[in-house]
Write a structure and sequence with these properties.
4 strands; 7% strand; 181 residues; DNA-binding; homodimer; 7 helices; mainly alpha
Chain lengths: 181, 181
DNA sequence: GCGTGCATGTAAGACGTTACATGATTCA
DNA sequence: TGAATCATGTAACGTCTTACATGCACGC
């Protein structure tokens, strides 16, 4: 447990109320997609470990409905989370295989390149739409929680960045089309 | 060796001529910084493994100068690289701890938040300047190699994206300044 | 001759993905 | 009753970082 960013992401989400591993995965995909992701293989074992360390606690399962294991943050968990917030963040780490391949485009079969570019464009389009949707929702609400402002700013950043990716991809599709012709 | 993207990045760099592990690290930092990074702990062992598998070969060391071990790509390496180029890229994976923390800004000590934001701004400023510099250089050259066009496009994307980050950070600094006052 | 940067490398351990396994519930 | 999706989890493996260790060479 040196960095264990995963556990902190989980703690952050639990600030708003108890969640299951499944919920957590979904929320990360929804809220943090443009700058973060996690897999189940990370989340479930991490939750277990966190419970053992007293950062979270398992709620008694409600009789009705599907079997789900909801976890709640403990006061110790909150403390740990605040400590994490007050240590300097690591620098950004990213890996875009598409761009790496794109650099060597002359060695790629043209139809493959087209496929990759379209998939990239689409991923960015989806993220862009999702983020715009979130922004719409957030701007409808009167500022209530102290985080509201910051989350909205992050969403706006996501929109700007994804728009840059998206527009680049659109233009590149046009440019490649012209090259072929 | 399932994905082993690192080895492919190395192969790509070796297309332009023999390089040492040190060179490779530097080049990645220079050319790919805005969408990729590697550490020595990845590169040196990977080079060794690749030599064992015949993807690269160690050049006899030149007598003069510092001790350096330059590797050259083999024809097998080139084949492997082309195959990799023609398999669909993974989706982007990224992790921006700064943004994750930013979401919980009200729980961060104001002076810490300021520090983090400034560090973020500066990283983006550096990347932006570096990329602009590369663009300048590249636009001076008459299109010679077939990659030229694609590399330039990638650089331009990097500039757009980093500008978005940078400007966001600048505005956010102003906004936080006003909040304090 | 001393510091800085060049240069190579290893080992331990943390991190993360993937494939697999399991089974309940909802809805058509 | 069958398909889709909800939901949890593990094991194996692959990836990556960090800390450590070493030493040369170039410039001052």
């Amino acid at each position: 447990m040196k960095h264990a960013s995963t556990s902190f992401v989980i703690l952050g989400l639990l600030l708003d109320g108890p969640l299951s591993g499944y919920d957590i995965k979904k929320l990360i995909g929804l809220r943090f997609r443009f700058f973060w992701d996690e897999s189940y293989g990370q989340i479930y074992p991490e939750l277990k470990r966190m419970a053992e360390n007293g950062l979270v606690e398992l709620l008694p399962s409600e009789g009705s409905g599907r079997p789900r294991k909801k976890y709640r943050i403990t006061s110790g968990g909150l403390e740990t989370f605040k400590q994490w917030l007050n240590t300097p963040p690591e620098k950004e780490r990213l890996r875009m295989e598409f761009l790496m391949k794109f650099l060597y485009a002359p060695l790629i079969e043209p139809q493959n390149l087209e496929l990759y570019l379209e998939a990239f464009r689409q991923r960015k389009a989806e993220e862009l739409n999702m983020l715009k949707h979130v922004r719409e929702e957030m701007e409808g609400i009167i500022e209530d929680s102290p985080n509201h402002f910051f989350i909205l700013q992050a969403v706006k950043l996501g929109i700007d960045v994804n728009r840059a990716y998206f527009e680049w991809a659109e233009n590149m599709k046009l440019a490649l089309g012209r090259k072929e012709a």
